[in-house]
From TrEMBL:
EC number annotated for this UniProt entry: 1.14.13.81
The name this protein goes by in its record: Aerobic magnesium-protoporphyrin IX monomethyl ester [oxidative] cyclase
Function in brief: Catalyzes the formation of the isocyclic ring in chlorophyll biosynthesis. Mediates the cyclase reaction, which results in the formation of divinylprotochlorophyllide (Pchlide) characteristic of all chlorophylls from magnesium-protoporphyrin IX 13-monomethyl ester (MgPMME).
Sample GO molecular function, one term: iron ion binding
Pathway field: Porphyrin-containing compound metabolism; chlorophyll biosynthesis; Porphyrin-containing compound metabolism; bacteriochlorophyll biosynthesis (light-independent)
Cofactor(s) named in the record: Fe cation
Top-rank lineage group of the source organism: Bacteria
Record's signal peptide: none
Pfam families listed in its UniProt record: Rubrerythrin (PF02915)
Length: 361
């Protein structure tokens, strides 16, 4: 009999371990506690033409198709002590950043649920929080197998709230759900092609798992399309800012972990191009302006951002006065690169009549 429930990563540990410390550092960049204008979330409406879609999504959430998916089997009993130490370290780092992202979603959605009144939107955030909690628990169970489970209680104890406008929450979470889908499905498909590279059973769970993320993104898509002022006028400039911010963050972080991707038989350049292009393409269900990922000039700028960041890391490690100057210059160069990315002509299109998409990738 295998444990069917996975524990949420919030139990208190006597000593803060390295994984928890890394999660704390990760959390500086990831969503922590947000406060927002909850009245605005309550005022969200569903257009009559989208009502059926909305009802279908909520029915799917109630049916809970992945209810029995996150159960471990005998494959998880494998002896992990034989794992290559370098791979072990990289894998743990990957799991820690994933558990932080999943759990941040869990608490953000739970917080919104707690603070709003609109019954249907409340119910939606409750379901999404349930799913993210399940994902975080499942990952933490694997970290526990390495004796490095993360105590994320610091995330729930955060005293400082960052104010974020509701529309920024919609853009950022919609994108992180869809990019989460694209990442999980791309890793899953890679291991289908080269199963000998699949060094841990958790990757077999990614196929159904990514459908949860896709569904979360669909719910945000319908909400935004039903409140079209979120997608018009000056908001289009914000949307493109969020698209680029999410893509640049992922590109730089993944490239810093290139050896881990190599272990999985993945070329990080190819992976990032696929995931970013797919996310950008999916986001056209809701965003009128997106990024032109067809252009090589776009990728050249992304690559420059990564190379600057890498040089910055090296200069920081070297220390000394000249390194400090170098870091300042490189930060400036990255800011300029971001502006150049932003000023590139966007891909423009009329929004499709049918909001919903199928996860066919
Ligand atoms: Fe998730
Ligand atoms: Fe999600």
């Amino acid at each position: 009999m295998y444990p069917t429930a996975t524990e949420l990563p919030v139990r208190a540990y006597d000593n803060v371990n390295d994984s928890t410390k890394n999660a704390q550092q990760d959390a500086i960049l990831s969503p922590r506690f947000y406060t927002t204008d909850f009245a605005k979330i309550d005022a969200l409406k569903i257009k009559t033409e989208h009502q059926q879609m909305w009802d279908d999504i909520l029915a799917e959430f109630r049916r809970d198709p992945n209810k029995n998916h996150f159960k471990r089997n005998e494959e998880f009993d494998a002896d992990l002590s034989a794992m290559d130490p370098e791979l072990r370290e990289q894998f743990i780092e990957f799991l820690v950043s994933s558990v932080t992202a999943e759990f941040s979603g869990c608490i953000l959605y739970a917080e919104i649920k707690k603070r709003i009144k609109n019954p249907e939107v409340r119910e939606l955030f409750g379901f999404m929080s349930r799913d993210e909690g399940r994902h975080a628990g499942f990952i933490n169970h694997t970290l526990n197998d390495f004796d490095v489970a993360v105590d994320l209680s610091f995330l729930t104890k955060a005293k400082k709230y960052t104010f974020f406008q509701p529309k920024f929450i919609y853009y950022a979470t919609y994108l992180s759900e869809k990019i989460g889908y694209a990442r999980y499905v791309t890793i899953f498909r890679n291991f289908e092609k080269q199963p000998d590279k699949r060094f841990h059973p958790i990757f077999k769970w990614f196929e159904n798992w990514c459908l949860d993320e896709f569904r979360h993104g669909e719910a945000f898509a319908v909400l935004m399309r039903s409140n079209p002022e979120l997608l018009e006028g000056r908001n289009k400039l914000w949307i493109r800012f969020f698209l680029l911010a999410v893509f640049c963050t992922m590109y730089v972080r993944d490239h810093a972990r290139a050896p881990f991707f190599k272990h999985m038989g993945i070329d990080v350049d190819d992976y990032d191009r696929r995931v970013i292009t797919l996310t950008n393409q999916i986001s056209r269900q809701v965003f009128p302006d997106t990024v032109d990922t067809e252009s090589e000039a776009f990728w050249a700028l992304m690559d420059r951002m990564w190379r600057n960041t890498d040089a910055m890391r090296k200069a920081e490690a070297a220390g000394g006065f000249f390194s400090k100057v170098k870091v300042v210059l490189l930060k400036g160069a990255n800011a300029l690169t971001f502006v150049q990315l932003y000023l590139r002509p966007p891909h423009r299109q009329a929004l499709p009549a049918d909001v919903r998409m199928q996860p066919v990738w």
